[in-house]
Amino acid sequence: LSLESRLRRALDRGEFRLHYQPQVSLADGTLTGMEALLRWHAGDEGDISPARFIPIAEETGLIVPLGRWVLGEACRQNRAWRQAGLPALPVSVNLSVVQLRRSDVVADVRRALETSGLPGDGLHLEVTESLFLSEDDPAVVTGFQTLREMGISLAIDDFGTGYSNLGYLKRLPIAKLKIDQSFVRGIGDSGHDTAINQAIISIARSLGLGVIAEGVETAAELRVLQALGCDEIQGFYYSRPLDAERAGQLMAAPP
Ligand code: G
Ligand code: G
Ligand code: MN
Ligand code: NA
Fold first, then answer.
1. Closest ligand 2 atom, CA of 217?
2. Residue limits of the EAL domain (predicted)?
3. pTM, whole model, 2 decimals?
4. Which pLDDT tens digit goes with each residue over 173-212?
5. Could you report the predicted ipTM of this complex, rounded to two decimals?
6. Is the CB of 64 under 6 A from ligand 1?
7. Centre of ligand 2 from the C-alpha of residue 247, in Å
8. Which atom of ligand 1 is nearest to the CA of 19?
9. CA 111: distance to chain centroid?
């Protein structure tokens, strides 16, 4: 069976799960949110990484129903955490460029919020810079504005890896930049990468955006990012992505 037909079958069979990775404030160490990360447990074969199946899902258009499921499940879970009395944090969902171009993401988001009862500010969305490689797509611009009006906050994922024309940061209602983990990895052993982190933090500052570094694995990386004035971190240093139950436990009793 091709990966495509297995993906299709996996959706029908409900083989997907979301894990959640905490995002943490560098100012006071409090939790600021949870990123939902898709996991596929493919029977005997075990777990298949999203790095492998997301590109196939994008090529085949399966990312549309799969992304719809992710939105619904992340909103449902976040609402359940809130109803269980856990602190009200936003959940961040990754959106694929293909979803934004080929489907009505606004309608899917609206439905996920309505079905779950989660308010719009309980959902953040992450999109990668590659979305902005071509001219502004008017449908994407209008979509972002509508999402913003619904209270949803937008972040640029993998910032610094995609595109150098930063005009879109001013034209679109973007709230946050996520520094790509490849830049974080070089902190400490390369003055160059420290300079890149510094530059991204400075862009965020001057545009009034928040900034989060992803893939933080060591205390040394954390200290440099703190000194550079980064707002938040996410990474193995604080926590790996956790299943929903363990994520809820961490929200209830953060370290
Ligand atoms: O969690 P992990 O490091 O294995 O994720 C690998 C890649 O898959 C990352 O680029 C991540 O953004 C992407 N990814 C994880 N979950 C989702 C999802 O729900 N939707 C989309 N579009 N991408 C995801
Ligand atoms: O592209 P995106 O940022 O959405 O992908 C996040 C991916 O990075 C996930 O697959 C997640 O599992 C992975 N990840 C999260 N924290 C760390 C980390 O500290 N180190 C490494 N190597 N990967 C991480
Ligand atoms: Mn992401
Ligand atoms: Na990223």
1. 19
2. 1-255
3. 0.96
4. 999 999 999 999 988 766 677 899 999 999 999 999 999 9
5. 0.96
6. no
7. 16
8. 1
9. 19
